[in-house]
Amino acid sequence: MFNGLNSLNQWLQDTIFKPLEDKKMPVMEHLVELQVRLTRVVIITAVVFVGTFFYADMLVKWLRIPLQNMFALGSLSWVPTDLPTVPFVFLAPAEALWQNVKVAGLFALVAATPYILLEVWQFVVPGLHAQERRFVAPFVLLSTVAFYAGVGFSFFFVLPFALNFLVSYGVNAGFVPQISIAQYVGFSLWFLLVFGLIFEVPLAITLMAKLGWVDAPFLKRYRKWALLGSFIFAAILTPTPDPFNQCLMALPMYIFYEIGIVSAGFFNKKKPVPEGSGVPAVATAAAGNGKAPSAGLPNVGEGDYVGVPKGRPR
What SS3 string covers the chain? Predict the structure, then answer.
């Protein structure tokens, strides 16, 4: 098994990493390469945007699903809630068109993310050492997966729960629900984005622990401040000022902080032991025998033979 892993590592080094070694390019050539790669990213994203804008109405309909449905984990399906039908209105002539552009642009950016990461990887990897490449590649991959997981968790569980609570509260208070399409799209997209970033918290803490900036004991000492900071950040990030949505964001943020503590304990950078900190073996032996070291001759007890023999012993 170990031979197979070594062969795979050698193959990756020879076929992928070595061809990307930095050729000591001048600064202007690096800037030209950056310009070329940014141009490619813009073109590919624009092409994807044309496709997503063509299906913008369908994407907006998908985004409306959490408003009046709850996701049943047992049957893996959406179940309608008891809320009345909530009509969408627009309050400006271009509001509906602009929301379609916004939704299509976000989905185009998400769909083009793998290609964007590929261009970033090909631009950055020549300047990295082999050990840094082996660490950066899994970290980028895991961070991407964590962001998508956070977006999915928010869409299927958090967003329906929040919307159902807020709309039902207004209906029970006697108000007629009519939601602006701009307000709803902005609310939903912001929720998805924030939860995608919240799922990055354990990876960010792991990276800081790997770099030696923090460790598990340090993070444990600041648990109370982390809890307070979670509610402060949630109060800033939530699109509405109600404490319900603040708790929906703050509690997962703090839970991921605790997960980061566990991860930091595994991946913490080992601090080098300073030289000379150990106790010499001779001094330990002298202390164990109860003998003080001789003056001028450290680590040597009284009565110990320290001279150089002259002649043959008798």
Answer: CHHHHHHHHHHHHHHHHHHHCCCCCCHHHHHHHHHHHHHHHHHHHHHHHHHHHHCHHHHHHHHCHHHHEEEECCCCEEEECCCCCCCEECCCCCHHHHHHHHHHHHHHHHHCHHHHHHHHHHHHHHHCCHHHHHHHHHHHHHHHHHHHHHHHHHHHHHHHHHHHHHHHHHHHCCCCCCEEHHHHHHHHHHHHHHHHHHCCHHHHHHHHHHCCCCCHHHHHHCHHHHHHHHHHHHHHHCCCCCHHHHHHHHHHHHHHHHHHHHHHHHHCCCCCCCCCCCCCHHHHHHHHHCCCECCCCCCCECCCCCCCCCCCCC
